[in-house]
Amino acid sequence: MRVFIAACMLCVAPATWAAEPVGQIKTANGEVHIERDGKRLAAQPGDMVLESDSVKTGRDGSVGVTFTDNSLLSAGPDSVLVIERYAFNSTTHAGHFDASLKKGTLAVISGKMVKQSPGAMRVRTPASIMGVRGTEFLVRVD
Amino acid sequence: MLLPGPDGKVGMVVVERQGGERHVLDEAYETSRSGSAGVGRRDPESVRAAFGPALAALPSRPASFLLYFESGTDNLTQASRAELDKMLAEMRRRSIPDVRVIAHTDTVGDVASNDALSAQRAERVKSFLVDIGIAEGRIQTAGRGEREPLVPTADEVDEPRNRRVEISVR
User: Fold this and answer.
1) Which residues of B touch A55 (CB under 8 A)?
2) DSSP-based three-state secondary structure for B139
3) Which residues of B touch A127 (CB under 8 A)?
4) B29-52 confidence digits (pLDDT tens)
5) pLDDT digit string (tens) for B138-158?
6) Are residues B17 and A128, on separate chains, in Cβ contact within 8 Å?
7) Cross-chain residue pair A138–B51, CB shorter than 8 Å
């Protein structure tokens, strides 16, 4: 019995924390990709975004993502946006959101978790960290 | 750089730079820029130019609607029929809306029949959404019966504000 339980946990556990979507692509123009587990996937509206994904746009690309806490993030051309850490509890509105703009342009409208706990969202660039108390701002990394 | 919201309100962003410099942006169009000291400001026009494609790609803001029903039925009230048209127009504007429909009843009738009535109200609203071409897979419905009144009442109280459906779209 013990062996059976251990074996089951091994097969169930990775699936439960691997695939929970944290956001969804709502707009995509030009070249847009998601990098996930070393794979490069062409992205289009309706595709899910997961924690640890990198969202990349080409020279003519732009992309907009709506997250489960109603945060809205969009990136302009030649951008690399990494969803480093994301968790949101839709009952308590507690959570954390660490995003990182490696290059390009980013527009942010913060969502429910920041409303609930100012500072729950942070946006990192190579030169700085932004603590988000709400609500709308822009970031550029040259 | 900070932007004013749709209501003109401005939030706050705390910027910590490499080297420990810390800036608080809490006025519209204030900027913190690496390589230049302190907090600056940009004019809205140059912002639109620099961030145009990113701003244009922002998804529509999540929205919510409340529709009310006539007593004991899944027929919308007169006022809510106008609100329904507004809601459907908003849905059509969105390229791939995800919709959540949660329906409720007042406390007239027993719990089981109110569960059934709320499910019926949710399905009725879903049918309006499917009729305008929204994929069924993008619509979540739930009937909450008389469990979550907007206005708490005793049992068997005819309360129009509790006979409602809450619709969220993002």
Assistant:
1) none
2) strand
3) 17-18, 34
4) 889 888 777 888 888 888 888 899
5) 999 999 999 999 999 999 999
6) yes
7) yes
